[in-house]
Amino acid sequence: MIPRTAAALLNEIRTGYPVITLTGPRQSGKTTLARTAFGDKPYVSLETPDEREFAELDPRGFLARFPDGVIIDEVQHVPALLSWLQTDVDASGQMGRFVLTGSQNFSLMANLSQSLAGRSALVQLLPLSITELRQAGKLPDELDALLLRGGYPALYARAVQPARWYADYTQTYLERDVRQITQVQDLGSFQRFLRLAAGRTGQLLNLASLAQDADIAQSTARAWLSVLEASYVVHLLRPHHRNWGKRIVKMPKLYFLDTGLAASLLGIQTSAQLAPHPLRGALFETLIVGEFLKARWHAGWPSNLYFWRDNIGLEIDLLREEPDGLYPVEIKSGATVTEDQFKGLRKWLAVAGPEARQARLVCAAPESYTRSGIDVRRWQDAAD
Fold first, then answer.
1. Are residues 112 and 144 in the same domain?
2. Looking at residue 181, what is its pLDDT?
3. CATH number for the domain that contains residue 52
4. Do 30 and 177 sit in the same domain of this protein?
5. Which helix H or strand E contains 94, and what residues bound it?
6. Residue 191 in this model has a pLDDT that exceeds 90
7. What is the pLDDT of residue 279?
């Protein structure tokens, strides 16, 4: 197992909450992390039919088997069990008693809020980050290799072709999760919608255009996009709310949470295909935005990430809103750093005034350094 940065968070919060909930996309490593971090606890999966039936029909008896707590995998399959967990943890007062995992944010979060509010700590686990891969000696040397492979742990644990693994992953996702979350009558239409969404990663989300291209109603596109967001397939990056005297864009930007999955949906399987592809820059931006998001979520913090764009074309790819101000980040996929790449950052710094903090340019340069007061980071150090 590649060590996960979220393990430190689990160790910290286990003494302060009776329930710890790990959520994230399927195959992101939730079960492995839970069983490693809580090796003293028994494990049960509610994807196993007999265990699921036991939990549904006799929740009291199901929980009585585990007097010292348990890891319950894919708990969203039996939402009623959460009410029984509430009764149990309130009676015992024991911290770190139950560890839950789930990969469907829709139903899981709704039931957690209803039954375990204030009792459960939430940890969102995404696929492997650049930092985790680098520390484990697993980070690909070539940027394009990482863009194609993505961060799912299975692709670094066993000999499997990324293109084939992602094709299977997509099919499994379509057949299992989509039908459980919402009514999708035509899986072919949904898969087409998924490919079209991948083609918009790193771009402003124009829902009407996406719906038209997918030949579906705009309301359907909105519902399906919510499914993708709830399943940790995509993330919507919101525009920063400050105006600074200019009209700002209000649409969010769409990002896939794994570049390997996005590349697979786009039909990109090799570095030779990726190098000249018009969306290579968007995939690189997707990778870097994901790195900053992983750094926040794996440390137990909500996203503090935004973008900024005004109506005359001035744009900052990423704004990190910290207590002491705003940190702008520009993302460029090229390996050569030119003065022209700093223009957007300098204009924004002038507009933002005293709220602006250290500006950063993340790119494919061979080394990290400071140039003209701007922090230039190679992609391997993007979110450090």
1. no
2. 66
3. 3.40.50.300
4. no
5. none
6. no
7. 97
